[in-house]
Every structure is written in C-alpha cells, then in structure tokens.
Amino acid sequence: MADPALHQTQPIKQIAIDYTPVACTHCSVSNSITLTYDPRGGASGLNFNIYLSSLEGDKSRDEIDFEFLGKDKTIVQTNYYTTGTGSREQIHDLGFDCSDGFHEYVIKWAPDLIEWLIDGKVVRRAERKESEAFPEKPMFLYASVWDASCIDGGRWAGNYVGCDAPYVCLYKDIHVPSATAVECSSDS
Q: Which residue among the candidates 56, 63, 104, 130 is catalytic per the annotation?
C-alpha cells in the first residue's frame, strides 16, 4: 500500500512567472491562477495546458502534460517526456466541453507510475517498463496558453483564424504534494 503522506497536498501559496508577467495573475486567497492570451483570434489553433516539467525549454527535460487543443474542446491530450523524448500522446474524449465549467484534473506521479485523472476517474495509466526511461527529475508546475497552429500544418490544434480574443484560462483550487512544495524567493 502506498504511503498516505505521499498524497497529502496543500494549496499553492505563491507562483513564479517565467515569461509574461502581465498575462498571468495569482490570487492566494482564492487559490487561482489566471492566464490571458490576446493575439486577437479564435480558440482554434490554441493550446491551453497544465503540466509538470523539470525545466521548461531544456531539451533533456522530463514532462507530464494535460493539453487542451483549441480545435475541439471536448478532448484532452495527455503525454509524458523523459530526457526530452515524448511521442507518448494519447487523446481522451472528455464527454463535456472543457470551457463550460470547472473540472478536476489530477496528475499522480510516482517512481513507477503516472496516472491522469479527470473528475476522480483515471483516464490514463502509464507504468514504468524495465527497458524504458521514465520521468524522474524534480519538476515544476506550469500552465500556459499558446498558438500551436504551426504544428503539423494545423492538424494538431487547428488553424488559427482569429475573432474571439482575449482568451482567459482560469485554474482554481491548485494543490501540490506537501512534501514537494517549495517557497518562491521574494524576487519571483
């Protein structure tokens, strides 16, 4: 049986913003993060996501993703990377439009197992295979919205056509494992 202490969580108290501070806000009172993307266009072609990554931009990163593809808000893609190698994508039918309300998205990550849960239901389970690499580097929690229409000629997230900006992606009730939470420095 798993150690219950490994699954205790706590709300996020503060965040560090890497790229665009004017587009991201954090409210510790409501435990929410708001991301705004405003290229003046429609949601098709955009990628809204929440993910764990050992170091964004590092070619040898480990990463575990939930990615919402703008061309179809009734699906989500899960994926994971080890030492910079992904190609483990799976598409999951949500059974609802993800933009119509809040739902619970959980990534449970252990040394030999990753589970992706939506509203308490496991939608994907990946177990470590003896001959394959598996995510093991310490990771940070990221959330972003970006124009992904250039990937695979727009077949992945759709073609970006423009009309409904700005796009606001709101995450609330964000928790991280208590044993792994770290405080941000005062200059973050």
A: 63
Tens of pLDDT, residue by residue over 106-165, are 888 888 999 998 988 999 999 999 999 999 998 888 877 777 777 788 787 777 766 556
- Reply yes or no on whether 132 is catalytic: no
Catalytic member of 67, 127, 130, 132: 67
| CA 10 to the chain's CA centroid | 18
Q: Are 174 and 29 in contact (CB under 8 A)?
A: no
Closest CA to 34 of 170, 163, 140, 138: 170
Pairing status of strand 46-53 against strand 63-69:
antiparallel
Kindly list the distances between the CA atom of residue 127 and the CA atoms of 69, 114, 146, 174, in Å, as whole numbers in the listed order: 25, 7, 30, 25
The strand pairing partners of 184, in sequence order, are: none
Within its chain, how far is the Cα of 134 from the centroid?
Answer: 18
Q: Is the dihedral of CA 1, 106, 21, 47 positive or negative?
A: positive
* pLDDT tens-digit readout, 40-50: 344 676 778 88
Strands (E), the chain: 9-11, 24-27, 32-37, 46-53, 63-69, 75-81, 90-93, 105-110, 113-118, 121-127, 140-147, 167-172, 175-177
Is 136 an annotated catalytic residue?
A: no
Task: Give the global pTM.
Answer: 0.75
